[in-house]
Every structure is written in C-alpha cells, then in structure tokens.
Design goal:
- With 184 residues, the protein is mainly alpha-helical.
- The chain has one domain: hpI Integrase, Chain A, CATH 1.10.443.
- The chain has 9 helices and 3 strands, in the order αααβββαααααα.
- Strands 1-2-3 form a 3-stranded antiparallel beta sheet, with no helix packed on it.
- Helix 2 runs antiparallel to helix 4 and helix 2 crosses helix 6.
- The N and C termini lie far apart (35 Å).
C-alpha cells in the first residue's frame, strides 16, 4: 500500500492561510502551524501564556509531549497582535469560544480547518489539522538538525522527530545540489 503524504507543501500552506478570512482563525492556524500544535492543544492556550513583550508563547503540550516557552515567528506575532486588537485584554483563553469562558474545542478546530482546507483545494488526505504539525516538522527537517526539531515540537522521544527526515533532510538536499551542479 502506498504511503500518503501527511504534510502540506509550502505552496499549500500559503494557499490555506491566505484563504482564512477571520482574524481569530488566522491566528489559530498560524500558531498551530509554527508551534506544531495538536487540535486539542489550541484551546488550552491562555492569554497569560503569551508574552507580548518578549514575543514568546508558553505551549501546553498533550500526549506526553514536553511543554515549554517558545519564541514566536514574525507571522505568529503579526497574527496574534491582530487577534489581540479584536479579542481585547480580558484574561482567559487565548482563543475563546463565543461564550468566552472556555478555549475553542478540538472539534471546532477540525471544523474550521476542514472549511479552509476545502477552500484552498487541499487533497482530502490533508483535510485535518494534524497535518499542520507534520508540515512544520517536515519543513524544519531540511533546515535544522533533528534535536532542534525534537525541542521545537516538544517530542519526548527522538524517534517521533526522526520521522520527518524521511521526507526531507539537509543531507539529501546537499547531495542533490552537488549532483545537479555536476550534471547540469
């Protein structure tokens, strides 16, 4: 049986994020991608987890992964600042439900992701939010070493991070560049 791709290409990710109209949803999925969040972890984020001065976010990981404080990327900072202007400074969940007392639930993250994935024309096999975690892991695999990926994604076990090097690796890209230079 052929293994299906579990991550978005950079182009698919761009199409997905550009198709989101809501400021809140843009922040949800931008942070979900860059932090490698599971759908259940999105609703656990609190406004107090975001250090707006230091541009950091404390991520509460589930499933035995390691929680921690992470520096935010420029896209995350922009998305969170735009959301903060609309959300306001009231304490509580970073991404509250309409009632405002709880964080957005896992099921709603799935519903929203599916809406935007269809809009972006993503293949059916990539129409679930967990592929954002696979996407950042794969995108990082060609850029940083596996120990840095392990830390970035909060993996307890290095084997969880090694999976991404099956799809991309610095060594594979370096070898291809060498071969292409010699044969071109």
């Amino acid at each position: 049986m052929e293994e299906q791709r579990k991550y978005l290409t950079e182009d698919e990710l761009t199409r997905f994020l550009r198709g989101i109209e809501s400021v809140r949803d843009t922040a949800i999925f931008t942070v979900s991608y860059w932090r490698g969040l599971r759908a259940s972890e999105v609703g656990q984020l609190r406004l107090s987890d975001w250090d707006r001065t230091e541009h950091r976010l404390f991520v509460h990981r589930g499933k035995g992964s390691i929680s921690g404080s992470y520096p935010l990327s420029p896209p995350e900072n922009r998305a969170l600042k735009a959301w903060y202007r609309k959300r306001g400074a009231a304490p509580g969940p970073l991404f509250p439900t309409r009632q405002g007392t709880k964080g957005v639930c896992r099921q709603m993250v799935f519903v929203l992701y599916l809406r935007y994935a269809i809009r972006a024309g993503l293949p059916q096999s990539l129409q679930h939010p967990h592929c954002l975690k696979h996407s950042i892991g794969t995108h990082l695999a060609g850029q940083i070493d596996v120990m840095a990926i392990k830390d970035w994604l909060g993996h307890e076990d290095i084997r969880s991070s090694l999976v991404y090097s099956r799809f991309r690796s610095r060594e594979r890209d370096k070898a291809a560049a060498l071969v292409f230079d010699q044969l071109s």
